[in-house]
Amino acid sequence: MSRLILDEPGKEILLMGNEAIARGALEAGVRVAAAYPGNPSSEIIGNLAQVAKEMGIYVEWSVNEKVAAEVAAAAAVSNMNALVAMKQNGLNVACDFLLNLNLTGIRGGLVVIVADDPSGISSSNEQDSRSFAKLADIPLLEPSTFQEAKEMVREGFELSRRTGNFVMIRSVTRISHARGNVILGPLPKDFPVPYFDTSKPLCPIPTSITHVALHRRFKEAEEILKDSEFNEYWGPEKPELLVITCGSGWLFSKEAIDILGLCSRVAVLKVGTTWPLPKSFLIKHLQKTRRVLFFEEIDPVLENNVAELYAQHNRELPLIEFMGKNSGIVPGTGELSPELILNALGKVTGEAVEFDENQAGQAKDIIEGYAPQRSMAFCAGCPHRASLWAIKQALSLDGRNGVLFGDIGCYALGILPTGFSQLKTVHAMGSGAGMACGFGNFHQFGVNQPSLAVCGDSTFFHAVIPVLVNAVHQRSRFLLVVLDNSATAMTGFQPHPGSPVDAMGQNTSPIVIEDLCKSLGLPTVVMDPFDLDGTIETVCEMIREQTGPKALILRQECALVSGKKQGKKYQVRIDPQRCIGEECGCDRLCTRVFKCPGLTWDRSEKKSRIESVICNGCGVCADICPSHAIVKESA
């Protein structure tokens, strides 16, 4: 049995932040949960899906975040508790709907979890989603600990039901993906009866009325949250410096103050109810100091909101110096870290941060001696490497300087040398196809460059289908290449509409990508990218003469999935008689250019070498070796 459904109130267990969020939803009586996978939020729905049958709840991986929000909202307007989870990029997709839902309100409970990714560890951007709460006039909570992550979700549902609107909870990578102790609460036994009251339609028109109602609900939330236990003060009664923080900055700040011996001089004020601000709580503690330092991720959202509050109440407050991102004391981008906060506190308080440069240098030398230099690369045997190699050769043979547009997925590495620098743009999901669709209509301006786009199979369903409809209608001359590895590989192999099972493991009817493309009238071809010669020839033919959009599906299972299911297809080895190393005219094509991790350069032998532990036996390297020195044999 999963730890998430232990009905043992008071028991303390170790949970990942996203697991704690999922547990909080279960304790709140969640009935419906939906999301599109996106790190660092993916494990929330993943964990709820694992216990869906036991808990009698409905969980789905939706086709995109807007649909996920709509599915959850359908439950929330039908007197149920529902949760939708997404990363910061996903909020951009869902906000069109959410900025109408806030005006109509809901009849049950709806919590929107947004997991931001400071420093863009697994994202195309680093975006601070907290401004959305202010834009939408909805409450925002930010957990600083794993216990709070659970409790805030539970309280968020209660607040949502009391105010009749959805509540946003913002996590960050170091909360979602770290682990800590969590004390379990009780699991509910009774649930509200689901029912949609058809006598009261929900519509944001007239806006004059619904907007007034939204402000009323927001004021109710402000009144409820003003004395929240999620806001804490720690430190001396009259501090020389007051640190105001939220999220991961809470524990980092307390640790840094302790290390620097500043406990008698510096206080920390943690804001858990980030919006609306706990005004009286903040004013009370602002009266105690004349210097304030802010720590938050990513933008100065809390800093600016507190400064705005200060401006509104300056007559009752002393003259205060605000420091943080706006003053340059704290970097304006990236994650917080213990070192960053130590240095900022040291600079502001005049307390030197002890740092042994010799010791640090020795540690660096030791690490470099053990850890080899690594670049971002596709996995050994990744079909995307073969696909991009074939596209590279085809565009070279075509000779018209074709443009390959891309977007987000494992294949985004195609903009780097590991993907032979083939992608020329990387933005949002589906944007490669959209831009290629546009570029494909510029022939009227004399543009002769072929227009191509790549997308993954999950991305195809998420955002590319509308592009194809547009492309057919506009007769755009572009080639869509779907890199179908039969998995949402980048985020954890979650199912998508092309999968034979759903989030809860139930069998379903997969949607066939080529059937959908053909139904729109696109000339469509399906190829195995490991057939390099065939793929190169096909790409060349499909871009040679175009009068409208075409689709090429390059289908080969993700190497990590196929490796688990069936093992190696080929045993691959180097023929030492044929491999002449640096004397070969290929200039180490296999290890310098193709760059599969399963291929390395043996410095002592000055020849290529197969790393048998890493190689997954796809055999593609044998096809690209001009000397036929790489041999593949049936496993």
Explain how this protein is built.
Helix content is 38%, strand content 17%. It is of the alpha/beta class. It has a six-stranded parallel beta sheet with strand order 3-2-4-5-7-6, with helices on both faces. The chain has a six-stranded parallel beta sheet with strand order 15-14-16-17-19-18, sandwiched between helices. The protein has a five-stranded mixed beta sheet with strand order 9-11-10-12-13, with helices on both faces. Strand 10 (241-245), helix 10 and strand 11 form a beta-alpha-beta unit. Helix 16 (431-439) packs parallel to helix 17 (457-474). The two termini are 39 Å apart. The relative contact order is 0.08. The model has no long low-confidence stretch (mean pLDDT 92).
